Amino acid sequence: MVNAHHHLYSSLARGMPAPLRRPNSFPDMLELVWWRLDAAHTLESIYWSAKLGALEAVLSGTTCIIDHHESPNAIEGSLDAIARACSEVGVRVRTCYGITDRWADDGSLQAKVSPLSAMTKGATRGLEECDRHLRAGNDAMVGLHAAFTCSDETIRAAAELAATHNVGVHVHVAEAMDDVAAGARLAPYAAADWLLVHTVHLDRDLPGVIAHNPRSNMNNGVGYAKPTQRNNTVVLGSDGIGSDMMEELRLAYVRLREFDNSSSPNVVQGWMDNARSMYPASLSDRVTWRYPDATNPWHAVFTTGMRVERVDVHDETTDSLRTVVDNGTTVLVDEDEIRHKAATAARQLHQRMENS
Is the pLDDT of residue 346 over 90? Predict the structure, then answer.
C-alpha cells in the first residue's frame, strides 16, 4: 500500500505536552500543538520519528510513503534524515520540505501571512532544502505548507522550482475555512502533477491529485472533503495520524457511507489503487496477510485487526524481491531497538516543547 500524505515528523507526537491553552479554532490547533512540535525537532529526533513511522508503516503493509515535512529549526539535512531512516527500514519515501513564511526573519510566529509580504529567510531555506534534495537525485517533490502561511512570492517560487525539476508541488489546500482563499491563490500555478491535500473548503476546480485524509479531518473538526464530488484523481493519506493505511481505508469508507450510503467499498479501494499508480514502484511489492481475503474490498472494509505476515519489497537494482517483514516482524532492523530509541527521542522532544 501507499500512504499518499504523511507527516513522519509527527510519529513522536504521542504523549506530547498539552497545549498552553485550549485550542478554540483550527489556527489555534496549528499554533498551540503542531507548530510547537515541528519547531522543537532536531535532525536526530527527525531521524527517529521517521524511522518509527516507517517501521509502523511496513508492519501494516505500506511500502511507499509520500511525506510532507517541516522543522523550522532543523531544515538543512532534514530530508536526508528522513530518506535514510526509511531506507534502513526498507520503505520507499518521496518527501519534501513544506515551505512557509510563518516564521518571520526575527524569529516571531506569524499565524497568517500577507500575500503581499516578501519571502522570509525560513522559506528560502526550505526552498533550498527541496532543491538540494532533488538535485542529489532523490525521489522528492517541492513542498508548501498552505497558502495562508505563504506569500505570493513564495508560492510562485515553489511552483517555479517544481517545474524546473519536473515534479509536482505537495501542498495543504483549504483544509479549514481559514485557508478558503487557497484556490484563487494557487490557481495560476497548479498543475496535473501537484498533490492537493485535504481540499475540504476548496471553492473551485484545480488540476492535481487530491489526497483525502478523513481521520485527520474528523479529528480537527474541519468538515468532510466530499472527494466523490470532484473530478480529480483521489488518493488516501493519514496526515501523520499513524501509518496503517488499511485502517485509513476502513474509516474512509465509513465516512463516505455517512455522506452517501449508496457508495460501495470499491470507491475507497479505487483511491488506494490510485495511490499505487501514483507511486508505480509499489506495484512490484508483495504483502502477505494472515486474513485470506484481505485484498477483497468487501472484506477489507468490514474486517478489523487484519495482520500482515510478510512484506517483500522489489529491489530495482537486482530486479528481485527483498523480504523486509517476515512472521509479522521486521527483518532489516530491530523493532524493539527502534521503539526504545524513538521513545527516548520523544521524551527529549517533548521536553524541548515544554521549555519553548
Answer: yes
| Burial (Cβ within 10 Å: 0-12, 13-18, ≥19) of residue 123 | buried
SS in 3 state form for 197-244?
Answer: EECCCCCCCCCCEEEECHHHHHHHCCCCCCHHHCCCCEEECCCCCCCC
**pLDDT over 90 (residue 276):** yes
**Alpha carbons 63 and 283: distance in angstroms, whole number:** 10
Which distant-in-sequence residues (6+ apart) come within 8 Å of 335 by Cβ? Answer: 55, 59, 329
In 10 A of CB 135, how many CB atoms?
A: 11
> Which residue in the block uniquely carries the three cell numbers 500577507?
114
Place of cell 499565524: 111
- Can you tell me the distance from the alpha carbon of 17 to that of 180, in angstroms, rounded to the nearest whole number? 30
Taking the C-alpha atoms of residue 278 and residue 287, their distance in angstroms, rounded to an integer, is 18
From residue 12, alpha-carbon distances to 84, 159, 291 in Å are: 17, 31, 30
Helix (H) or strand (E) run with residue 158 in it: helix 152-165
- The CATH architecture that domain 2-355 belongs to is Alpha-Beta Barrel (3.20)
First to last CA, the chain: 38
If phi over 0 gives left and psi between -120 and 50 gives alpha, with beta otherwise, what is residue 55?
Answer: alpha
Q: Which residues pair with 64 in a beta bridge?
A: 2, 92
Domains of the chain, residue spans: 2-355
The three cell numbers locating residue 118: 516578501
Q: pTM higher than 0.85, yes or no?
A: yes
Spatial separation of the C-alpha atoms in residues 321 and 276, rounded to whole Å: 17
Q: Count the residues in the chain.
A: 356
255 band by pLDDT with thresholds 50, 70 and 90: very high
The gap from C-alpha 39 to its chain's centroid, in whole angstroms, comes to 17
